[in-house]
Design brief:
This protein is about 45% helix and about 5% strand. The chain has 12 helices and 6 strands. The chain is elongated and about 90 Å long.
């Protein structure tokens, strides 16, 4: 087993990547938050944020910890991670790019591997989820679900209900004041509570007995393939956008010459029609025939 020291400032990721580094340097154990004034443990990976190591060259860092008949190598966290994850070639390629000076910082590449990935979450949706959770907090008490627990069926019904309402054309939840909170956001909020209950072990799991979904999927896949084989050119779907653009309305195909309008002089009551009215009415229908629906 090797004895190694890895230096890095606080919160740079030493603890998160300790196991990776231990295996890479073939150390038997990890000593986290080790101080350079403490004795060395043979066969251990010593992780330290002691600033006295900062700025020293590799040679000086190595001999600075020669004690107890041991010559102990000292690496910066960036050096160690580059060696352990073979990032050298990637960092060199990044350095060759124009205006990429910040991208060459080893901490950037190392940080991209951490569990913190908030940059991938759109803040637009996060803001709406916060408001949806505020509504629940106002009604039931913030984080009440972590104490009272969650019944799975209730939140599945809520999520599906909001999704169905949105799918059928109702954009916003009418029960929320202001009526500007999307049903989709409410569905997400329901799933947030459900997932938190699962993580916190506060879920009342009243799901039905496990279904044989694999068989159902396989059977339905065969059916879908058969339907699409029978109808290789299926008709276009009717959508909200299509309807707004006139989908389903076709131009009338009326031949005015085949319209038979036969008015008698007394068609509209005892008084009859004004002389010539029948001819004018007939001409009007013929003129508008092209605009009449089929």
């Amino acid at each position: 087993m090797n004895t190694v020291i890895v230096y890095g400032p606080r919160a740079c990721g030493k603890t998160t990547n300790a196991e990776l580094l231990r295996k890479h340097y073939d150390c038997g154990m990890v000593l986290d938050v080790w101080d350079t004034g403490e004795a060395l443990t043979p066969g251990a990976l010593h992780l330290t944020n002691d600033a006295t190591l900062e700025g020293r060259d590799v040679f000086n860092r190595r001999i600075a910890h020669s004690r107890d008949s041991m010559t102990v190598p000292v690496y910066t966290f960036a050096e160690a991670m580059a060696a352990a994850t073979q990032l050298n070639s990637k960092l060199e390629a990044m350095a060759a790019k124009p205006d990429a000076s910040k991208a060459t910082n080893p901490k950037d590449s190392i940080g991209a591997r951490k569990w913190r990935q908030y940059a991938t979450v759109p803040s637009t949706v996060a803001v709406e989820i916060g408001v949806a959770m505020l509504e629940g907090a106002a009604k039931y008490g913030r984080h009440n679900y972590r104490v009272a627990g969650v019944r799975a069926s209730v939140y599945v019904d809520a999520a599906k209900g909001h999704i169905d309402s949105w799918w059928e054309g109702e954009d916003y939840d009418p029960d929320v004041p202001g009526q500007k909170l999307s049903h989709i956001t409410k569905a997400i909020a329901s799933l947030v509570v459900l997932r938190d209950a699962m993580i916190q072990d506060m879920l009342n799991d009243d799901r039905p007995p496990k279904a044989n979904l694999d068989k159902v999927r396989a059977d339905m896949q065969v059916t879908v393939e058969a339907i699409l084989d029978k109808y290789p050119e299926p008709k276009a779907a009717f959508t909200e956008i299509g309807v707004k653009n006139g989908q389903g309305l076709t131009e009338a195909r009326i031949d005015p010459s085949k319209i038979n309008i036969n008015f008698t002089a007394r068609s509209f009551g005892a008084g009859g029609l004004v002389p010539g009215a029948a001819e004018k009415l007939s001409a009007g229908f013929l003129a508008r025939g092209k605009d009449m629906p089929r």
